Amino acid sequence: MIPAPFEYLRAHDVAHALDLLREHGDEAKLLAGGHSLLPMMKLRLARPTVLIDIAELADLDYVRVDGDTLAVGALATHARVGEAELVRAEAPLIAHSASLIGDPQVRHRGTIGGSLAHADPAADLPMAVLAAGATLVLEGPAGRREVDADDFFTGFFTTALEPDEILVEIRLPRRAGEPWGYEKFVRRSNDWAIVGVATVAGRVALANMGSAPLRAAETERALAAGAGIDAAAELAAENTDPVSDLHADPAYRRHLARVLVARALSSAPG
Amino acid sequence: MIQVEVTVNGEARSAEVEPRLLLVHFLRDVCRLRATNVGCDTTSCGACTVLLDGVSVKSCTVLAAQADGHEVATVEGLAREGELHPVQAAFRAEHGLQCGFCTPGMVMASVGLLQANPHPTEEEIRIGLEGNLCRCTGYHNIVRAVLAAAEAEA
After folding, report:
1. Residue-wise pLDDT tens digits, A16-26
2. Is B136 helix (H, G, I), strand (E, B) or coil?
3. Suppose A207 and one of A139, A196, A247, B122 were both cysteines; which one would form an S-S bond, judging by CB atoms 3.0 to 4.6 Å apart?
4. Which residues in chain B come in under a pLDDT of 50?
């Protein structure tokens, strides 16, 4: 399988990438590691006529502390996010999440920004940044703006990113030492989650329980009101809209959500 | 068409290619290096694993254009002056292959794994090779081979 023909352009820096995006409009797609986009192009599920390769934008590949925030550049690979001491110390939930994506080869190429912009509802990082309460920094022709993870994922493979914007940074609250939990139910090692759960600091996020990653709002409210783990977890599937596929029907996914939320809340490794 | 220049096994290879040309096809059809196999073609099986700037990647999911200006290593480049690379020698000695189809990718993934972690435990090897499938299910001897190679290189 090879993708349909396209024009390939390489951006030198963010300003150049923004210029190219403006010039080519929504015919163009940004290419970073390409580990979501290229498989979709091979299957003709995506057919951009222009690819703007941003992989060489070295100014977007970093992990650094910025006050009470851990700032991760959009081009940091899953391998880097999963292994960097700084991420493991300050945002262990995110490091753990990145380390479960695909396999080593995939993690060497895939980037955090690419995964979030792709917004697969079954993917690890969208759920994880939602649980972590991340803020995403988007850059466009008018400059930078910040969007909470809660407002970024708007639907099935859809985000708040405008066609002329680039996701440049992920800002994570520093949570060294805070307990967190992560559960991913899969039939094949390191696959996409049939259902996934990430929790930290009273926030509980679900993967593959709707068209976008979701907060288990009723569970969070119950926890905040002092409910026990089991009682709170019983509410995990409220207001969800899971799909039916080869792996599971909606009723089974709701069951999984309740069980996995209870496990994630109980495990909470420090 | 675009011009790409990729250093393959230490040798500069330049060609005019379609932007959609995958790295694995660049290696097989342009460079005529046919050891790297196309297995699943969907980033799953790892048969097409090569090293890109020293780290393992699945070359069915990398464009030749993305490798422009970078270094690629394939299994053909491992042996030195007729001497098998320690990982190759260990795969042979430990019977780390049956039909051989996954072997080039398995060897390159193992070389990448040992570069990052020269003394892996058995479990680290199993996890480190998660991206490579052996349809003969010959995993035990593959893991033994990587352990032996780590010992030989120590």
Report:
1. 999 999 999 88
2. coil
3. A196
4. none
